[in-house]
C-alpha cells in the first residue's frame, strides 16, 4: 500500500497476516505428514516446491490463458487504457498490464504477484454493458486488490489447495490402477496402495482447511475493495449501479459459459454462478451477498453527502 492513495484497511491486513500464518502452519504439517506416511522427501519437495514456484511466478499468465484473455495495447483498447491511466494517476500507483477476455460473462479481475507484474482484465461482456463511469468504478475495485496486495496473498494461499488437490487426484488414480493391494509390501513396510490412501486422506484434509481459510479472506477482501474504490472515485453509486447491472445480467448468460468461469470466482468482481442445479460455490461463497455490498455502498454515499 506504500505510495497508494487507496484507503488503507487494517482489518484486511490483519486477516491476510492471520490467513498466511495459519496456512504456513498447515503447509509445514502437510509436508511432514507426507514424509511420515512414506512419501520420499525429495518427491515431496519437488511437487510442492515446483507447484509453488509456478503458481507464484506464472499466476498472471496462467489466469489469462485459462480465461482466454490477451493483453491489449492503447491502440487496440484506447477507452479501457484511458480509464486505467486515470485511475492509476488518481491512486498514485504503477499502471498494470491491461487485458481483455473474449467472453459474454460480464466481469473483471486482477492478477499478479506484485504491482510490477499485475494485470487487470475486463471481459468483452462487461465492456459492452457498463458506461464509462461504471467501468471506472469496477476497475478501481480491481486495482485496489493490487494496491492492497491481497491478490498476491490469494495467489500464494491458493497454491496449497492446488497441491493438495493434485496429490488427491494422483493418489486416487494410483489406487484405482493398483487395484487396492495389500496393507504391507514384501519388506514389511506399508504397501504403495496404503501410502496412496494416506496421501489422499491427508491431502483432502489440507485442501478443506485451505479452502475454508481462503474463503474467509476472500469475502472480506471484496468488501474492502468496494470501500477503497468508492472512496477513491467518490462515486459509490456508480459501483452499486455496476454491481446491480452485472448481477442482474448474469442470469441471461448461458449456463455453459458460467460453469467455465466459476473456477475464477475468487478473483472476479462478482461471482459467476450457474443457475441450473445446486452449486457448492453458492454454499461456500467467495463474495459477500450483493445486498451487503450494496448496503455498504449506500452508507458510503451518505457519508460523502450524496444522499
UniProtKB/TrEMBL annotation:
It is a multi-pass membrane protein. One of its GO terms (cellular component) is plasma membrane. Its main location: membrane. Pfam families: Peptidase_M48. Its cofactor is Zn(2+). Zn(2+) binds at residues 141, 145, 222. One of its GO terms (biological process) is proteolysis. Binds 1 zinc ion per subunit. GO terms for molecular function: metalloendopeptidase activity; zinc ion binding. The active site is at 142. It is found in: Cell membrane. InterPro entries: HtpX_protease, Pept_M48_protease_HtpX, Peptidase_M48. It comes from the Bacteria. NCBIfam families: PRK02391.1 (NF002669). This is Protease HtpX homolog. The lineage of its organism: Bacteria, Bacillati, Actinomycetota, Actinomycetes, Streptosporangiales.
